[in-house]
Amino acid sequence: MKKHKKVMKQEHEDALEICKETACSDNDTEHSHSSSHTSDTKILIAFLLNFGFAVFEFVGGFLSASVAISSDALHDMGDALSIGISWLLERQSKKSPDEVYTFGRGRCSVLGALITYSVLLTGSVLVIIGAVKRLMNPVEADAGLMMIFAVVGIAANLVATFITARGEGLNQKAINLHMLEDVSGWVVVLMGALIMKFTGLWFIDPLMSIGVSLYMIYRVIRNLLEIADLFLVRVPRNVSVDEVRENILSCKGVSDVHHIHLWSLTPENVCATFHVVTASSDARVKEEVKEELLHMGITHVTMEIEAPGEHCHDTLCTINASSSHSHHHHHHH
Predict the structure, then answer these.
(1) Which of these three, 214, 231, 248, is where a domain ends?
(2) What's the whole-number average pLDDT of the chain?
């Protein structure tokens, strides 16, 4: 018995057209064009401020024998690296889908984040090791010099925070958060320097360094787990299969839905594929389903239409290497 199965999905040409229309709408006015360049300029300024100040900090950490300043210098260098990579890869991620990258290059920014967080994680571990060695072999830090660097650090990072404030994109907002964290880190250094100057408690410096590094490790691991979710194709945390199933079934003419897959290309781009059972040949069924999912934040939908009573071999997904391998050999024998 021949199956009459229609595949209703967003065509690649449609995706390309949508991307082109989006690009056109972004440049419809002089204001939009100017805004795009202003965003890039802000990110570049933040990068230059962080990189320049990180070099300044490394010198200050060496002169003052302060592990806290040296650790924050590493932190700022990591931030500068993050901002630089983010700027380069963000430009790549905005390119339209093509015949090679059919989903576009949105994950370029995710790759940049993975590289940066890995560097920061390694750096934080090395800073903790250095601080422990300093506790075992005490070297008195220059509290006065620490305070000078702390004041300059707070001022420089406040400028960067102000420049990147009110960012329109997720990337710029993330950079702004980094700047706020830098301000907080320098406030801690200033407080530690004051305590050391008036109490003589030299061990405050390496202890603060360990504390800041542990906090950084905690934040980095949380972000790495979020990135791992993307690469492992986990269902996005803001949606669920049950919720998607319920919303699709609420659409007029839909009697069943199965073989649901949900994943994210980037945190803000959620995709879905599934099989819909309907007796209707009306294209409005497809449009209603897509509209329903769009309200859930699912922007890319591919659906397969099945007739009632039609047998579906894919009701339960069984993607695995062994079945693929055996199927391959089946055709060669």
Answers:
(1) 231
(2) 75
